Amino acid sequence: MKSAAILLCCLLALEATSAAMSRKQEAAEINRRKHGQSALYKRPPSRVAPVATADEEDQDEDHTVSSSEVSEGCPEPNGYFPDAEQCDKYYDCQDGKPHEKLCPDGLVFNDFSPQHEKCDLPFGIDCSKRPKLQKPKPSAHCPRMHGYFGHEDPTNCNTFYYCVEGKFNMIKCPDGLVFSEKTGICNWPDEAQKTGCGSKELFNFTCPKVDESIAATHPRYPDAEDCQFFYVCINGETPRRSGCKLGQAFDESTGKCDWARKIPECKDWYKGVLTDAELDALENPPKPVKSANPSSRRKGARPRDVEPAEE
Questions:
Q1: How do residues 213-228 score in pLDDT, each as one tens digit?
Q2: Which residues contact 173 (CB under 8 A, 6 or more apart)?
Q3: 184-208 burial, b for 16+ CB within 10 Å, e for fewer?
Q4: Distance spanning both ends of the chain, measured CA to CA
Q5: Pick from 224, 223, 272, 229: which is nearest to 249 by CA?
Q6: For labelling alongside 130, which of 81, 187, 268, 309 has CA 20 to 30 A away?
Q7: Residue 179: pLDDT band by 50, 70, 90 thresholds?
Q8: What is the pLDDT, as a whole number, of residue 290?
Q9: Domain co-membership, 221 together with 275
Q10: Considering its fold, how many domains does the chain have in total?
Q11: 243, 263, 244: which is closest to 253 by C-alpha?
Q12: What digits encode the pLDDT tens for the residues 56-111?
């Protein structure tokens, strides 16, 4: 009996020792895995460049060709882009491939947006960095097929031509204005700055010298030869010819326009041009006839039967 008890105690001790070793081994394994995983996350990134595969090298070569094509006239793969030297030439870019185009003669490419294909008149478009143009196709009064062009006679300051497809229309500026070849519109002589078409050459009028306080008011002076017109002296120095509407004349005493028959020195200005009846009609235009019921919005409505309200 004593030997059996001793044997049982030995077996229990061996089992406890084995269990304790197993727990130590398990803890060691967990600790090893934990440190191994942490080392993996803390590993510094490699500085060695990856080696490209054959397929990746082919893709890089294709991309290089595409970039080269885009750079020649096409800053972007798709859109409309100006030529670097010629203002009326541009490129229609599709998938990086440029298609060269020309605007109609006399027009230039407007590069305000790559998404819009637009040729426009050269006024207001900066062609200073690409000043070249296509060879002109002139016709009568039209140096180019499209555009606004001044009269051939340099002393003719207020006449110009509007050309479309090589065909012209002759247009005259209003009195006192000059055609500006820089802007393509009629403008004041001092702003048009056309040689031989300044205020002195056109009007034969010089603004009287005045002090600064009067000059600041832009004083007005009558046209000595035409009651309907007068001169405005900008800052007391630059004359601009302006006029009153039909039937009126400039009143020097007030500095304003009034009916000519009320101004003693101009009361007969329109004789032989307008009859008294026409002058009366201008001075006293008929008043518009008001509708009897202007607030009504149901004109023309037909009467209809209405059932009496229930009592």
A1: 999 999 999 999 999 9
A2: 157, 158, 159, 160, 179, 186
A3: bebbbbeebebeebbbeebbebebe
A4: 122
A5: 229
A6: 187
A7: very high
A8: 73
A9: yes
A10: 3
A11: 263
A12: 444 444 433 344 445 567 999 999 999 999 999 999 999 999 999 999 999 999 99
Within-domain flag for 91: yes
Dig out the tokens for 22 from the structure: 């197993």
pLDDT classification of 292: cutoffs 50, 70, 90: low
- Check: CB of residue 184 under 8 Å from CB of residue 125: no
Other Cβ atoms closer than 10 A to 98: 17
- Rounded CA-CA distance 272/233 in Å is 31
Closest Cα to residue 226, out of 189, 156, 176, 284? Answer: 176
Report pTM. 0.61
Domain that holds residue 182: 147-196
Rounded-to-integer distance, Cα 114 and Cα 80, Å? 5
Q: For residue 81, what are its two tokens?
A: 């882009």
Residue 171 β-bridge partners: 160
